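Support request from a user on the community tier.

User writes: "When I paste my structure tokens into the form, the page sometimes reloads and wipes my input. The last time it worked, I copied everything first. Here is what I submitted, just in case something in the input itself triggers the reload:"
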């Protein structure tokens, strides 16, 4: 394990230059978002600076010794927030924007669940000389952290493996700039489907990619229910079974009970078809059924494909599901990055 301590505050270095070993005292906060990309950015730079809503956002690899194209793990950091609440609001907006940007650029990203991926015992770090008495050791969080910008924070991390396939940093950063400036309310909504499709893109297993991509769309229709008219038809059927039982052992009554118990349920396919209609995507219904039929054969073992065919199929599935998810987030008020047209049509 390669352990390094990453300083998050430029103010710390400035303070050392100006005041020797004295610490920089201020009450501002820093946003740190650590995420893993499906493909690292094709850049020999160690940092990319973006201006998003008047604030400077730095994108850099989690290992300061590497360039962006050498690491899937990136950290987006933003300084200068007056309060923790202000930093958290900006950070959540940045997270949602970066997820949509990564999807639009077909890079894929996992922004985590704000859980530690590595931590080090603070007493051991001090005894080993890795951590001075004035510093605070915090765990390496996969996700969002809000940190006092006082120059005292140190974060451990474990080095990652070698990366081979990279992606265009200009597509990604331009998409992020576009999205971030138009997400004042959208980022507060449900982004579960967006997260699932990003996880599909970064997953190296085609079967897992296919399953996650379909799930991202199915999740949109999970809350569908029967209409009042449909419920009245189901209730009528239940009453007729109860009034005129024709089978021994009360089987009719069991069916009637099942009808009543399941009246709030709508099948996955029916839920998806309703979603497509609301998004004015009726033209995609046949393609959904075609690809889903193939998916069922693969998942249930009734159909076998060669690896290269499976990769092509997973690409088709992600393309279709991407069109649907993009239409949904557009309907919810988000700006779709221009580059998404290139990757999803």
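"...and here is what came back when it finally went through:"
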């Amino acid at each position: 394990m390669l352990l390094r301590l990453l300083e998050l505050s430029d103010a710390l270095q400035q303070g050392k230059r100006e005041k020797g070993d004295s610490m920089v005292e201020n009450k501002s906060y820093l946003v740190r978002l650590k995420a893993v990309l499906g493909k690292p950015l094709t850049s020999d730079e160690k940092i990319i600076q973006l201006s998003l809503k008047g604030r400077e956002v730095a994108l850099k690899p989690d290992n300061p010794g590497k360039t962006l194209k050498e690491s899937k793990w990136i950290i987006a950091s933003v300084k200068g927030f007056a309060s923790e609440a202000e930093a958290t609001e900006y950070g959540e907006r940045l997270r949602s924007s970066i997820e949509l940007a990564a999807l639009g650029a077909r890079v894929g990203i996992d922004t985590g669940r704000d859980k530690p991926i590595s931590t080090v015992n603070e007493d051991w770090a001090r005894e080993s000389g890795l951590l001075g008495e004035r510093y605070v050791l915090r765990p390496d969080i996969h996700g969002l952290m809000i940190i006092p910008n006082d120059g005292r924070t140190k974060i451990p991390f474990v080095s990652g493996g070698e990366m081979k396939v990279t992606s265009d940093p200009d597509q990604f950063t331009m998409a992020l700039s576009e999205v971030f400036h138009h997400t004042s309310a959208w980022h507060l909504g449900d982004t579960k489907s967006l997260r699932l499709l990003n996880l599909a893109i970064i997953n190296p297993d085609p079967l897992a990619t296919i399953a996650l991509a379909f799930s991202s769309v199915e999740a949109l229709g999970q809350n569908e229910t029967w209409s009042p008219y449909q419920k009245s038809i189901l209730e009528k059927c239940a009453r007729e079974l109860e009034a005129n039982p024709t089978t021994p052992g009360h089987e009719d009554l069991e069916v009637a009970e099942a009808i009543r118990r399941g009246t709030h349920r709508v099948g996955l396919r029916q839920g998806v078809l309703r979603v497509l209609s609301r998004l004015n995507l009726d033209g995609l219904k046949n393609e959904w059924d075609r690809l889903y039929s193939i998916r069922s054969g693969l998942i249930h073992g009734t159909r076998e494909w060669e690896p290269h065919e499976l990769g092509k199929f997973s690409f088709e599935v992600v393309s279709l599901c991407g069109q649907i998810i993009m239409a949904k987030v557009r309907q919810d008020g988000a700006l779709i990055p221009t580059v998404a047209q290139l990757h999803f049509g």
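Agent notes: The reload is a front-end session timeout and is unrelated to the input. Residues 1-25 have pLDDT under 50 and may be disordered. The CA atoms of residues 281 and 324 lie 8 Å apart. Escalated to web team.
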